[in-house]
Design goal:
Keywords: Membrane, Transmembrane, Transmembrane helix. The protein has nine helices and two strands; from the N terminus they run H-H-H-H-H-E-E-H-H-H-H. It has about 250 residues and is mainly α. The protein has one domain. It has a two-stranded antiparallel sheet with strand order 1-2. The longest helix is centred in the middle third of the chain and has 35 residues. It starts with a helix and ends in a 5-residue tail after the last helix.
Length: about 250
């Protein structure tokens, strides 16, 4: 397992496309802050954390498209370049190989998410302070729940990204085709974005709960979203288990 993880991490470090995406996102954050500054920033409650939240909300569909791309790129690599035989000749089992792909995919998308939130929050915090004052109708959240927000942010992002990666993993292993897995992944994202307008379905949608769960934790309504959280955990367990089962039965040496 350790060998497989090290190999996958090395590949990610040397992927210039990931660093290029981070640079583009950072420039977009600077432009977003510039637009807010030129607008006079009339809201008294605005803060670095609020800016990071609003910026992510504005690019959330784009983030999930990037997530699909990186997940498919990482997991599909050996399928696409027909290097699966070589990859499986190392001193690792098929389960270790696939699980390392899953973990590195989750870590990559999580790093992308945290970069967006922390860099956008850092830029805004330098100019507007670090207190968490999020205007939610009649409710204002003060700075004493910042830690809870951050813990919830990391926890919810790992949970939702893990669930989505497990679904993509299952699709990729079943199809063994980069184009099919990428197309189905994109379709799933667009479907979830369309369904977000339904309040009853919202707690079960990965695309929205990545950023909504931390806010509900602060409002004390986490139990309301417990069915959704349970669903995400089930998706991770079932998705990874089914993927490993299918992968172990595939003939890679034809």
């Amino acid at each position: 397992m350790k060998i497989a993880l090290i190999n996958e991490i090395k590949k990610i470090i040397w992927r210039k496309k990931f660093l290029g995406v981070l640079f583009i996102l950072f420039v977009a954050e600077l432009l977003y802050y510039y637009r807010i500054s030129k607008g006079g920033n009339p809201e008294q409650y605005i803060s670095g954390i609020q800016i990071s939240y609003e910026f992510f909300q504005s690019i959330r569909p784009f983030f999930w498209i990037l997530a699909v791309y990186f997940i498919c790129d990482i997991i599909n690599e050996d399928y696409h370049y027909e290097m699966m035989k070589t990859a499986l000749t190392r001193k690792i089992t098929r389960t270790e190989y696939l699980f390392s792909k899953f973990l590195v995919s989750v870590a990559t998308v999580e790093a992308l998410f945290l970069f967006i939130m922390l860099s956008a929050g850092g830029i805004g915090g330098l100019f507007h302070g670090w207190k968490l004052l999020i205007n939610d109708g009649s409710t204002l959240f003060s700075g004493n729940v910042v830690l809870l927000f951050l813990v919830g942010l990391i926890g919810s992002s790992l949970l939702t990204i893990g669930a989505f990666t497990a679904i993509c993993l299952c699709i990729i292993v079943a199809s063994q085709k980069a184009s099919i897995s990428l197309g189905l992944g994109m379709s799933l994202i667009f479907l979830m974005l369309l369904l977000e307008t339904d309040a009853k379905l919202s707690p079960f949608l990965i695309s929205k709960q990545i950023i909504e769960l931390p806010l509900h934790m602060m409002k004390g309504s986490t139990l309301y979203h417990l069915p959704g959280i349970t669903l995400f955990l089930i998706l991770i367990i079932v998705g990874v288990s089914c993927s490993v089962s299918m992968f172990n039965k595939q003939d890679m040496y034809i």
